[in-house]
C-alpha cells in the first residue's frame, strides 16, 4: 500500500497596524491601535505565544505582512526552530508586497527603492533557506479600492511583479534554475468589482500576460512554473449601508466574473459578509457567505448541512 501523504494544515494571520508599520505595542503612536485590525507581534515572545501548541513544521502559514515582512519572517523561523522544525521544512506565504503599501495603503515604512530591496532580500533568503515558502503575494486588491480601474489594477500589479523579478535576476545571487522556481512561487491577490465584463476580461488578461511575461521575458520553460497563481477577494468598498441585503447580489455578481473564465478560473475566493458595511459579521452572516460559495461550486447539490 502506498504511503499516505499528509498535507500541511492551513492557517492565516493578519497583523495589527503597529506591527505592520514597525512600532512596538507600547509605543505612544500605537495607542488605540493594538490588536484592532490584527494580531500584535513586537518580539519573539509574542510570536511564541501566537503559535503556542501549533506545530509549525506541519502548518502552511499565510502571513498578511508587508513593510515589516522580513522581521516577522525572522521571528516565525525562530519560533519554528524552538519547536524543532527545520526552516527548510516550513511552508506558507508572506505577502511582502511593500510597493502596494506605498501605492495604495500608506502603511509603508521605507521609500520605493528600499522597499524593493527588502522584498528582493526576503525572496533570495527564502529561496535558499525556506524553499517551500512562497516569498511574495503581489496584492492588487487594494489598488482598486484606492481608485484604480480594473485595467490599472492589472497594469500596476504586473509592473510590480516585473520590477521585483528584474531586481532578483540582476542581483546575481541566484541561479537560472532557482530563478525559475522563484517565478513559480509568486502569487497574486486580486480584486473583483461590479464591472462584470471588464472583470472577467481582466482575469483572462492577467493569466495570458503572465504566461507571456514569464515565457518571453524570463525564459521559464516549465509550464507549471509559468501558471498565474492567484486568489480573489470581492470588492468590500462596493457594499452599501442602505438596504444592505442587496449586497448579497453584488457579492454574487462580483464572484461570478472570476469563476467563469475557463483559462483564468479562480481557485480561491474570499467573500465579505452582506452586512460588512454596518459592522463585524455574526456567525450567521459568515455562514451566508460560505453558502454563496457552495452554491457557486455545487449548483446541483445545494448545501443542507445545519452547521
Describe the SSE topology.
Blueprint: E1 9-14, H1 17-20, H2 44-50, E2 59-64, H3 69-82, E3 91-94, H4 98-105, H5 112-129, E4 133-134, E5 137-139, H6 141-145, H7 150-170, H8 176-185, E6 187-192, H9 196-217, E7 230-234, H10 247-257, E8 268-270, H11 283-297
Parallel strand pairs: 1-2, 2-3, 3-4, 5-6, 6-7, 7-8
Helix pairs in contact: 5-7, 7-9, 9-10
* Largest sheet features: 4 strands, parallel
Structural class of the secondary structure composition?
Answer: alpha/beta
In whole angstroms, how far apart are the ends? 35 Å
| CATH fold-level assignment of the largest domain | TIM Barrel
Key traits:
307 residues; TIM Barrel; 8 strands; 11% strand; disordered N terminus
